[in-house]
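Example (one chain per record):
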Amino acid sequence: MNKLILEYVYDHEVAHPDRIYLTQPLGGGKVADFTWAQMLDQSRRMAAHLQSRGLPPGARVALLTKNCAHFVMAELAIWMAGCTTVAIFPTETAETIGYVLGHSEASLLFVGKLDTWEQQRPGVPAGLPCIALPLAPKTGFDTWDAIVARTPPLAGRPQRAADDLAMLIYTSGSTGRPKGVIVNFESISRAGEGFARYLRECLGREREGRVLSYLPLAHSMERSTGEAATLIDGNTRMFFAESLDTFLQDLQRTRPTTFTSVPRLWVKFQQGVFAKMPPAKLDRLLKIPLLGRIVAKKVLKGLGLDEVVMAFSGSAPLPPELIRWYGRLGLPLYEGYGMTEDNSYSHLSDAKHSEPGYVGVALPGVQVRLSPEGEILIKSPGQFSGYYKQPELTAESFTDDGFFRTGDRGELRPDGMLRITGRTKELFKTAKGKYVAPAPIESKLLAHPMLELAMVSGVGRQAAYALVVLAESIRPRLQDAAVRSDVEQQLGALLKQVNADLADYEQLRMIVVAKEPWSIENGCLTPTMKIKRARIETAAEPMLERWYAQAGTVVWA
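Predicted structure:
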């Protein structure tokens, strides 16, 4: 009871020092393995160095790096030294990096594996002490390896109190500037425990687990379900992805036993399969009893997912048809629901509580209810302590009896199954005067394998519209008139199909095909691959009159 995350780590260091915990790709097929003893030795040495710098208790120490073994080592060092972690998304702009470092009052920055360091570097304030992690670009900073080589390790079992600040997690900024979410050791420990317990239930007590860490560790979901859960579990090995180009090879190398992703990647996996085998042909083969099982196993093996016991999706709704498609391959795909403010510890589906369109039931210790307006209210063991330097927003975000106002609308069945029906702030009115919830309509659109991303909008217009991004496999072939005509026909049919299930005031006037794909780099997606709705709507505004004036139901932006 009340055991904190560092206590688990120290116990694993003693109980199985030679067990491999972290596997880091180095390029060219080479990897570096780190046992619990090796990891803690490096973390202890860096913790001693941080203490030698005279940082005050709770000092914020920032991390700007892609996922890597030394992210985990650095976080442990920060905690053992009595400090607080501030992780920054590795794709952030210099402006946002500067804002987070300034707002958090960071005392030091670890710079690690990055793709665009030269563009990001201007965001680091002059005079801020920096340390370069292994795999970092050339920086001129003192290096992790040099520091740990010359510094004796911090001894013993340095403790942190339950209400000590463990980390500030800055949200991905889908609705404006990122907010600093205050996470103490009690909340991250309880969330990590819950996910570790779930992991063991999936795998069995003695079986070694394997996970691939590739979703940003700066984000709550990967921090809780990946890092915290495996630090507490002690019998799950964490692999890291080398790059986007090697992602399938990284999956093949890892052969994960549990796998967590976001809707966009589950769609891209499916589209990758369809690029090799047309959907109709695959569907026919899967219907043949014996051959179907062989084909399904081969497809999953090609994705590196053939040893996955349970797969999960979070961050945004998953089209029910996509869940059923993976189920036909023999991959149980379950949706979950959580947010930074509860360390992602809220709701999860499992074999007993799973239905497409629902995010499962409340995890142990979680309380949930709906407000009279239908807003989901949550009280979780992983609940945050408030927003950093924003007491008014903190006060507004809780009910009088301590439930967090999620901003999500939902439906709660008597058996505890929760359905998300949209964001309260995303609701909009058309000229017909009734509110439209975009998320359910977007989910219907994304069930079509031709589409990669979709956004429904139409504030004040006579009817809503959908702006979509076509699948990566289709985009290069649009110069072919026959392909373009086929896309138009399929999108027209999709529009009729979707509208048939919608109320009159919700129906879409048209589907608009985006000229360019949305990405993190062009500012249309957050680092966790959610759409930046306001950004996309603002960019589309000058074209709306022309789009609505066209006669057809499929428009090319």
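Caption: The mean pLDDT is 93.
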